[in-house]
Amino acid sequence: MPEWVELALRIVAALGAFLVFPLIVGQAEHKVMAHMQGRLGPMKAGGFHGWAQLLADGVKFAQKESIVPAGADRAIFRLAPLVALLPYLFVFLVLPLGPHGLVAQPLDLGLFFVLAILGIGVVGVLMAAWSSANKYSLLGGLRAAAQLLGYEVPLLLAAASPALAAGTLSLPEIVNEWEPWWLLWQFPALLVFFIAGLAEIRRPPFDAPLADSELVFGYLTEYTGLRFAFFLLAEYVGIVVISALTAVLFLGGWQGPLSDSVGWLWTLVKTALVAFVVIWLRVAWPRLRADQIQRFCWLVLVPIALAQLVLTAGVRIALDA
Description:
Layout: H1 3-37, H2 53-63, H3 74-92, H4 110-118, H5 121-131, H6 135-166, H7 171-177, H8 182-185, H9 187-200, H10 212-215, H11 225-250, H12 259-284, H13 290-320
Helix pairs in contact: 1-11, 1-12, 2-11, 3-4, 3-5, 3-11, 5-6, 6-7, 6-9, 6-13, 9-11, 9-13, 11-12
């Protein structure tokens, strides 16, 4: 098979995963929250176990009128959902699903590329907040900017720890170097990365930028119809990306029994388990205040991430000696 054909097939597969996996997570969130909260609504649409709930939501969004506020900057208002969503597509291109090249485009600096791309998400949020000509939206955007820019620091420090331990920034190579004892050694970095990832995608308890009890719906207050659906899709894609990165960096990715033949299945199972925890926290944990979010970032997560990075460097030097 020509190399360009193989690359095209890999890109198409990554695009398919980009479109399908977030919908599966969205459906799972409906069901998990319905069971945990004893809500019957999401169990009714379509009959058996509410299988058509997500489809019904999609039809609802498509039917809603897409309104642009009179005072809004129309071009930026319309562009913001795409800017918030598209960076995740590029992340899907370098996420390794399994061994033997099961990745659309392997990069030697894959981790650096992923972390750099994820930082663009805040631009879409700020565009939505500023262009809406709504004070609640602007306040939500300011909260989001402070939160996202702050939590990028512990996210980067935590991600650097397994990369330093493996001696590479290539995501497939990090998985190849991973050992089961890393679960204990890198556990603090795992917690910091997961928590900072939740804040980066603005999931509860870090959803102060939306805070419906204070800001109507934050930077999304003026969005309706398919534009709102794009932001919602970006949130679900963010869950998949953070869960997959957690699995690849800290849980061994495709490592497991029979990894050569069903390694991709191990990656999906680990990603699904982490995504379940993300959904669980939405139900079980109350929203943090904006000041609590900042204190937790700078006084707790950053020191832990720095200490873990120093420990990893020391162990790496000792092993190489």
